[in-house]
Each structure stands twice: as structure tokens, then as C-alpha cells.
Design a protein that fits this description.
Largest sheet: 5 strands, mixed
Strand order of the largest sheet: 45-46-47-48-52
Strand content: 35-45%
Number of helices: 8
Length: 1005
């Protein structure tokens, strides 16, 4: 045993040296030589079920791809000879380790994403690293860690990590690493592969045998299954274990190994169709073995089991291929030392054959008797699987159309019509001369055909009939359709359609709104007819023409095939691919004038564009209900009964944000500086099947009211953003229209400038209020100044009047009293006349005293009444209330503000006039005065319960010859007060004077 182990150890050392030399050489070759490979374009092969895409170094793919893994978010990770890369289906992004925490080596040979989403990384010189939530941790080579090439990394059911390498088998239990040894029943010094099966059993290929560790066991058990060098393991869906090594080839357990068996795969993977994909160490390249489930247990693969071998000679970037991975969407990924390949399950199969002319027009039809027929040049072929079988050749010009009518098959060359049978092509004796044109079924087992310059002909299998002679235009017909009602629709170049019905021809053209260029396809749709042409599609229904649109207007260009299946859905073949409209969408689209559906183009494997200048539909249904499309690069087939639907929800993420020229990563919670206005937010979705067809919608909370449809764009642009808090949310949908249930979000905020803060608005409001207050005060000053000027003018007028009164009226009145005194002195003291005269003189003297006081007040602008107006009004009441005949009272509420002398004087005389009128004329039993503050005004109210004032007197402002009421109003206007007088006959009178309090404290200048 020791001798055997020593020999094995020497063998291992030699293998390590060889592997290192080989890897170094391949790495140098990749660095020195820039190999020109095809870009990431579709490359269908044969009648394949897979569509292939390639990314080379020219497309940004790294060289030397040794390991592949997919993370829970759907992104693909690539372990390469030059570092770690991430791929989202659109672009490659190199992972750069944090400064000071870099990888010990850039040569990565193994990857694993575990159940916790951690990415485990193994290296060529040994050692392990783990990337978790953006944090990187390293486990360098040591006695308990690999010190040589890491072959694989696997996680068991308990979450333990197992690592087979050139230097042994290692395990990480979540806390510490350990080298697995004899204590666990593992005596070997190296291991090739580790596999955890569906039952929880751990399988290890080591030495020259296979070991297993059942779930819950603590020691490995021998299986006595022999293995060779560089063994790889795979479990089939039925639980069968497959083994591939350099000695015994590839076989399933249990098996009897045989030397030099077929197939030595470095890595193996199963796709959703049950096919095994393996990267071949011996011959290089990639092998696909279809239908693995059909093979019995213990079966050893042979050359005949290989369905396809893909190498550099037929499209692989390099024959040096190692990792193969099936992702969660069913795509198969293969890494080589010169690029990355994707093999996607295809809904379209392609037949490309050099015998199908790419320069001419070929016809296509399905015959129940002969199968799918296609023509090219003068030859007629039958399509058999992925090959063509020659049936016949025309003796004249090339065949351009084929029509199957029940058991009969008709073939049309440019110069004549034929019937095909086992005897070959039999010419039909067609009347007239000229080139043949558009062909269609006549609905009765025959056909309709246009002959250039002659018109429309019908053949029922025996006789010919010329239809619409002289009425149907005979030139430029490009398409034909027989309506179920027996009428015929004929399309022409120049956007013209003729409807022949009941012996009459109705023409639809540009005047009727038809603008689709040459009409190359016609199809019955409900009560109308759908017409496809060079520049669009239109619906003719009820004598009206309605143009139809799509989200991408180019989708409806160059339509040469229209086909409505029995289920009601519509298929179109055009220059941009095959466009499928579901029956639900078709009904809605015809009503709104816009069609939406699924486009199948080069990304789906379409070999070319729809044939143009055809005179029959480029869509044919075969006996199995499959649809065949003729293109300028061959035939394509879609089986509507087996549509490919991708149920995997895309994982959407926000990649970063840019402000101006400054790029940021994900900045959740970041506050941007004041003045930030324009932003670009980058987002992505990990949907690897059709990443270019992933659709997005986003919303910026704080700005957008609804979701914004971004289409396929992966950047959101925002301009003129204001300060505030925002949350950006984005959702994604895959090519099947499956939207992500949740959304990726990122919160951020923009700080306000000082001019955008509440403080600034508060200061502006305060300043505006202060300015308004200043304007108000300025206006009050101006009003006060004008009033003072008016008061001064009045004062000067008063002084003038006072002088004149003093110099004239009072002096004259005083002289008159002296004359009365002289007369009184002539009478005896006992004379009653003298007593009466003396009383009159006393009253005159009192009048002179009052006049002098009034003259004095006019000169000094000081009121002739006390400052206490309520007391003054009480004195007036006592004076006028003779013998207390009236119930009189004065009520004052609160302390009145100080009043200017002139204003106080005017208020006094207004009140005196009101009281005088009440006592003298109202015949009132009660008279009252109330003084109070109300709504910023001083309120003086004089009320009696007398007979009142008539409405005419109030309306005219007083009785003729009386100036009391008019004087009161004038005085009120002079001091800026409001005088209100209300009265009704028998209801008393109410006089109310409102004096603004803001005017009460002005002082004379």
C-alpha cells in the first residue's frame, strides 16, 4: 500500500507540474495572441433546438474562463485566469477587491454560490476566498486548506463546504477548516470531484475509485467503482449517477468500466430537455448527448450517442472548454479560454441549405400527399427532417409558387402552370400569354392566378375561366385572396386593392386612406380583410380603410405573409421578423388601431428576413400545425403548440447614480449637496435568456405620480430636481412579460440652498410683512399729513371767522345789549316789562359769553368742551331736559383713547346736534347715549324712542331750510368717521358715529 501511495503521489506531482505548465502556456497565448472570433450574434446550426450566442474578447468577455456560477440574483460569475468577473447578460464587469484586501491569485479555477448567497472562490495555487454581502474574506493555503489546484467547491445538506483539490479533500464546517483524512475513511492525497446528490449523499472521486458519505454518516464508504484520472460527476433527474474520466470514458452507475471508453468530460451539466452537455478533454470542444433519460442504467456512452459536437471549426471560440453550467432559466453556458457561449432553448428551428437560392424567390406549400414542398430556381424539393429531397424540375423558367388543393399539387413557373404527380411536373394548358403572377386558392379545389396583361383566371381542375375581363386591372397584381363569400380581393403595387364582387370592382387607394406601398399579403380577419405591404398594415372593413400601428412602427414593415390560425391568433412575416398577435390582443388592437405582440427575430434564431417580392404568402402550416416561414436565408419553423415561456422573474437591481460627471455606486440614504438638479440612475436586471428584451418601469417618489415605462432602457434621467427626500423604485419584466413582484429601491435626498429653506421663506415673509407695514405706516403718515394740512387750513379759516365774529357780530351784539340796558334803565324796577327785558339781556350776555368762548376755541383749535365726552353729553342732556320730562342716561364702557382737540370738538357738536334734535323734535320718553369700543372704532350711539324721522328726510339729508343733519354728516366726513342714521315713523331714531381709533391719537405738528 505504501508503494502504491508513493507511486500515486509521484503521479500526482507530475500531473500538477504538467497542469501548471499547460495553464501558463495557455495564459501566455491568450495575452500574446488576439484571436479574432465572431461577436455575440446568433449562430443556428442545422435543425437545432438551441440558439447560440458568443461573447469573445472583442465583446468584452475575459479569456481563460475556468469556472462558472450563478448567484441568487441571477447574475453569472466567471472565474478566469485574470480575475473574477460578473455578467448580467449585457456587459461584463470585473470585480475589484478592496484596497489592501485583494486576492492572493488572479487565477480562479472554482466557484460556488451556496444556500446563503455567498460566493466561494477557489484558486489555481490553492486557498479559498468567500464574498458575502460585498465583504471579502480570505483563507490562504495552509495544512488545513488546499495548497494546490482547487478542482471544485460543493455544499452539502448541512451547509458544510467541501473542496477537492490536487492536495487533498477539505471541509469547512462554518467555523474552521479541516483536511479530510483516514479518520473519516478517506486515505487519499488528492480528489477530483465532489457531488451532493438529491438524497443527501456526498460522492467523492479520489484516487482510482469512488467514495460516498451517506446523509448523517461520519465516515466515507467505498463503492468499489473504478475511476480514472480527472473524474467528473453528474446526477441525472432520475437519480442515476454519471461518471466521466480519462480511462473509462463516460457511463452511468452501476457499470462495468472498460478501458478507453468514449467521452472524457471536464465538466457536465443537464439542460431542461434532459440532454447532457460536456466539455471534452480529449478532442476539445463541446458535446451534446440528447435524451439521457432514454439510456438504461449502467450504459456507457459511444460516438453514436452524440447529437452534436461543437468545436472551433463550427463556431466555438476555442476547443479549450472547461466549465459548463445550466442556469435557472434553462440556458446552457460554456466557458472557453477565448470567450463565453450561451445555448438557449429555441422556439424556432431553422433549415439552411445552399440549394435554397438566396437571390431568387422560392415557393412553399404543404401537401397532404407529398409533405412540405419548397422550390428553388427550377427545382422542386420535399423537406425531410433537416434535408431536402429533389422531386422534379421545370422545363421552363424558375418556380416561384406552389399551391396544394386537396390531393392535387400545382406548381407555378413564371411562364406556365404545372400539376405535380408521381410522374413529375405535368404542364397545364392555360389560355393567353404573358408572365404569371399572384396565386391563391379558389376555395373549391382549384386556384386563382393573375396573368400579366391578361387579368384574373380560375382553374377548377378541368377548365379555365377568365374573371372580370375588362373590369379587373390586369397589370401590377401582387397578391390574391378568395373571400368565403365568393368575392376576390386583389392587391397591387402603388397601394391599391381591388374588391371583385357580384360582377363589380371596387378600388381602394390613397383617396380611401390606403398607404402601405405594394400590397404583398392579404388575410381574412373577422368581417374584414387585413392587408400587409411594404410600409405597413391596414384593415379593410365595412368599406373603410383603417391603418394599423405598433409600438415599434418598423415591426409592420415589409409584410409578405399573413396567417390566422384556427384559434384566432395572427402571425405576420416581415423584414423585422415574425410578429405574433394573440387572439385577445388582436380583437383589442383592431378596435384601437394598434397591434402589440411577440416579435421573433435574429435573437430567436431567425436566419434572415421575410422573402420580399413574393406572389404567395410566405407562411405555410404543415400537417402537425407547425408554421413555416420562408426567409431570404432559408426556412424557419415555429410550433405554436409548444411555446417557450420563461416563468423566472428577473431580479432587478440599482447599479449606481451619476450627478454631472461624478459617478456613484449604490448610495442608499445619501444626501447630495445643495444645488443638485440633474441625475442619471443606472439599473439592471439579471435575466440571461433575453437580456436585450427585458423591459423596465421606474418611479421616483417625491416627483413621479405614476410608473414611467422605460422600455429596454437601463438609465433613468431626471432634470431640474428640487430639494427634498426621494425614493427611486424600478421593476423589470422578462421576454415573456413576467414582471418582478417586488422592486429595487434606493432612497436619497437633496439638501436645499439657503434660499430654498423654510428659514429663507420665513425671512422673506417677515420682510414682506415688514415692508407692507412700512407702506401702511407711510400711507397713514401721508393721510395724517393731509388731515393736519386740512385741519390747519380749517384752523386758519376759524381764526379768520373768529376775528370777524369778534370784530363784527359780538361787538354789534354787545352794543345792542347796551342799548337794551339803556332802555331798561328808563323803566321802573317794578315794571314787568323791565323784568322781562332784563331776562332777555341776561340771556344775551350768556350768548355773548358762549360766542366769546367759541371764538376763543376757533382761534386756539382747542375744544370748547371738556376732554371727557360722556360727561359733556350728560351736561347737554341736563341742559336740554327741562323739568326732567325725559328719561335720559349716558353709558360709557371702558376708557376711551385720547382724542385730538379738533376731532373731540367735532364729535361733541355732532352729539349735541343729535341730542338737540331728540329733545326738541322727537317727543321721546327715553333718550340715551352709549360710548364704547367696537372693532377698532370708537362708537358713539344716540338713541331715542320718539316719533322718528321720515324716509324722505333721511334720503334727502334733512328738511328744506334745516342744516342740522347735513352739518353732522359733513363733520363726520371731515374727521374720517362714519355716520349712520336709522329711523322709522313711530320707531324712534338711532344715530351711530364710528370714529377709527387709529386716527384718535394724532398730534398736531
Amino acid at each position: 500500500m505504501d508503494t502504491l501511495l508513493s507511486g500515486r503521489e509521484g503521479c500526482v506531482s507530475s500531473l500538477i507540474a504538467i497542469a501548471r505548465r499547460w495553464a501558463t502556456l495557455s495564459w501566455l497565448t491568450c495575452c500574446v495572441l488576439l484571436v479574432r472570433t465572431e461577436p455575440a450574434i446568433a449562430t443556428p446550426f442545422g435543425m437545432a433546438e438551441y440558439h447560440r450566442s458568443t461573447w469573445s474578447q472583442r465583446d468584452g468577455a475575459p479569456p481563460d474562463i475556468w469556472a462558472l456560477a450563478q448567484d441568487p440574483g441571477g447574475a453569472l460569475w466567471l472565474g478566469t485566469g485574470i480575475g473574477l468577473y460578473r455578467f448580467d447578460g449585457i456587459g461584463f464587469e470585473r470585480y475589484n477587491a478592496p484596497q489592501g484586501n485583494g486576492f492572493a491569485s488572479s487565477n480562479i479555477t472554482a466557484l460556488l454560490t451556496d444556500s446563503r448567497g455567498r460566493l466561494w472562490i477557489g484558486f489555481y495555487p490553492g486557498g479559498i476566498s468567500v464574498l458575502e454581502a460585498g465583504r471579502l474574506k480570505h483563507y490562504p493555503p495552509s495544512p488545513v486548506l488546499p495548497t494546490g489546484l482547487v478542482m471544485r467547491i460543493t455544499e452539502d445538506a448541512a451547509g458544510h463546504i467541501w473542496v477537492p483539490s490536487f492536495t487533498g479533500l477539505y471541509r469547512f464546517d462554518g467555523k474552521r477548516w479541516a483536511r479530510v483524512g483516514p479518520e473519516m475513511g478517506f486515505p487519499y492525497r488528492y480528489a477530483d470531484d465532489v457531488l451532493l446528490d438529491s438524497k443527501g449523499t456526498l460522492w467523492v472521486a479520489a484516487g482510482d475509485t469512488l467514495l460516498k458519505l451517506p446523509s448523517g454518516a461520519s465516515r466515507f464508504e467505498p463503492t468499489h467503482v473504478a475511476t480514472g484520472a480527472y473524474t467528473s460527476l453528474l446526477e441525472a433527474p432520475d437519480g442515476t449517477l454519471w461518471i466521466s474520466d480519462g480511462t473509462y470514458g463516460t457511463r452511468s452507475m452501476p457499470s462495468a468500466p472498460r478501458a478507453l471508453g468514449f467521452g472524457h468530460f471536464a465538466s457536465m451539466s443537464l439542460d431542461r430537455n434532459g440532454a447532457l452537455w460536456g466539455t471534452d478533454r480529449r478532442r476539445g470542444g463541446l458535446a451534446r448527448i440528447a435524451g439521457l433519460d432514454r439510456l438504461p442504467a449502467g450504459y456507457a456512452l459511444s460516438e453514436r450517442d452524440v447529437a452534436e459536437t461543437i468545436q472551433r471549426r463550427n463556431g466555438l471560440a476555442s476547443d479549450r472548454a472547461v466549465p459548463v453550467l445550466t442556469d435557472r432559466e434553462g440556458n446552457v453556458w460554456v466557458g472557453t479560454n477565448m470567450g463565453l457561449h450561451r445555448f438557449r432553448p429555441s422556439s424556432m428551428q431553422v433549415l439552411q441549405d445552399e440549394r435554397l437560392s438566396q437571390s431568387g424567390v422560392y415557393g412553399m406549400a404543404f401537401s397532404p400527399s407529398h409533405g412540405l414542398l419548397v422550390s428553388s430556381g427550377r427545382q422542386l424539393y420535399r423537406v425531410d427532417d433537416n434535408d431536402l429531397t429533389l422531386l422534379a424540375s421545370s422545363v421552363g423558367r424558375g418556380i416561384y409558387a406552389i399551391h396544394a388543393a386537396g390531393p392535387r399539387t400545382y406548381v407555378f413557373a413564371w411562364d406556365g402552370a404545372y400539376e405535380y404527380s408521381a410522374r413529375g411536373l405535368l404542364p397545364l394548358d392555360m389560355p393567353g400569354t404573358g408572365t404569371l403572377g399572384a396565386v391563391a386558392s379558389d376555395g373549391t379545389g382549384g386556384f386563382l392566378v393573375m396573368r400579366e396583361g391578361q387579368g384574373l383566371f380560375q382553374y377548377d381542375g378541368q377548365t379555365w375561366t377568365h374573371i372580370g375581363m375588362g373590369a379587373i386591372p390586369p397589370h401590377g397584381a401582387t397578391s390574391l385572396l378568395r373571400d368565403p363569400d365568393g368575392s376576390v380581393w386583389i392587391g397591387y403595387n402603388g397601394s391599391r386593392i381591388v374588391h371583385w364582387r357580384s360582377g363589380e370592382a371596387r378600388i381602394f387607394g390613397s383617396k380611401e386612406g390606403l398607404d402601405i406601398g405594394t400590397v404583398s399579403a392579404l388575410e381574412k380577419v373577422g368581417e374584414g380583410v387585413l392587408a400587409g405591404g411594404e410600409s405597413g398594415v391596414a384593415l379593410l372593413r365595412n368599406g373603410q380603410v383603417r391603418p394599423l400601428r405598433s409600438a415599434d412602427r418598423n415591426r409592420l414593415s415589409g409584410i409578405t405573409g399573413l396567417h390566422r390560425r384556427p384559434g384566432g391568433d395572427l402571425w405576420m412575416n416581415g423584414v423585422n421578423g415574425v410578429f405574433h398577435v394573440s387572439v385577445e390582443e388582436l380583437g383589442k388592437g383592431l378596435e384601437r388601431g394598434s397591434l402589440d405582440g411577440r416579435l421573433y427575430d435574429t435573437a430567436d434564431g431567425m436566419p434572415g428576413i421575410a422573402q420580399q417580392s413574393t406572389l404567395m404568402s410566405t407562411i405555410v402550416t404543415d400537417g402537425a400545425g407547425r408554421l413555416w416561414f420562408s426567409t431570404n436565408q432559408g426556412l424557419a419553423m415555429i410550433d405554436p403548440a409548444r411555446p417557450l415561456h420563461n416563468p423566472v422573474v428577473p431580479t432587478v437591481s440599482i447599479r449606481g447614480l451619476a450627478v454631472g460627471e461624478v459617478e456613484y455606486g449604490r448610495v442608499d440614504g445619501k444626501e447630495f449637496q445643495a444645488g443638485t438638479r440633474d441625475m442619471r440612475i443606472r439599473y439592471a436586471a439579471s435575466s440571461l435568456a433575453y437580456p436585450e428584451r427585458v423591459r423596465f418601469r421606474y418611479r421616483l417618489e417625491g416627483l413621479d405620480a405614476d410608473w414611467q415605462d422605460a422600455g429596454h432602457r437601463r438609465v433613468a434621467y431626471y432634470t431640474n430636481l428640487g430639494p427634498g427626500k426621494y425614493v427611486f423604485r424600478v421593476q423589470a419584466a422578462n421576454e415573456s412579460g413576467v414582471w418582478s413582484a417586488g422592486n429595487a429601491s434606493m432612497a436619497f435626498s437633496i439638501a436645499p440652498r439657503f434660499t430654498q429653506t423654510g428659514w429663507f421663506f420665513g425671512l422673506c415673509t417677515t420682510a414682506a410683512a415688514a415692508f407692507m407695514y412700512f407702506i401702511h405706516k407711510l400711507r397713514l403718515r401721508r393721510i395724517s399729513r393731509r388731515m393736519r394740512m386740512r385741519f390747519e387750513e380749517r384752523h386758519r379759516e376759524r381764526e379768520r371767522i373768529a376775528r370777524e365774529l369778534h370784530d363784527t357780530l359780538l361787538q354789534s351784539f354787545h352794543g345792542l345789549l347796551l342799548r337794551f340796558q339803556a332802555v331798561a334803565n328808563l323803566l321802573a324796577r317794578e315794571d314787568p316789562v323791565r323784568a322781562s327785558l332784563e331776562q332777555v339781556m341776561d340771556r344775551g350776555e350768556q350768548a355773548i359769553v358762549e360766542g366769546r368762548e367759541r371764538v376763543q376755541s376757533l382761534r386756539l383749535a382747542e375744544a370748547s368742551v371738556p376732554e371727557d365726552l360722556p360727561q359733556a353729553f350728560a351736561s347737554i342732556g341736563r341742559e336740554l331736559n327741562h323739568e326732567d320730562a325725559v328719561d335720559f342716561n349716558v353709558v360709557s364702557e371702558g376708557e376711551l383713547p385720547p382724542l385730538e382737540a379738533v376731532m373731540r370738538d367735532e364729535i361733541y357738536w355732532i352729539g349735541r346736534e343729535a341730542l338737540s334734535n331728540a329733545f326738541r323734535h322727537s317727543e321721546a320718553g327715553r333718550i340715551g347715549v352709549a360710548v364704547s369700543m367696537a372693532n377698532g372704532n370708537i362708537r358713539f350711539r344716540f338713541r331715542d324712542d320718539g316719533r322718528g324721522v321720515t324716509e324722505d328726510v333721511l334720503r334727502s339729508g334733512g328738511r328744506d331750510g334745516h342744516w342740522g343733519l347735513r352739518g353732522m354728516r359733513e363733520r363726520a366726513i371731515d374727521i374720517g368717521a362714519e355716520l349712520r342714521i336709522s329711523s322709522s315713523p313711530g320707531g324712534g331714531t338711532d344715530v351711530e358715529l364710528l370714529v377709527p381709533s387709529r386716527s384718535t391719537s394724532r398730534k398736531r405738528a
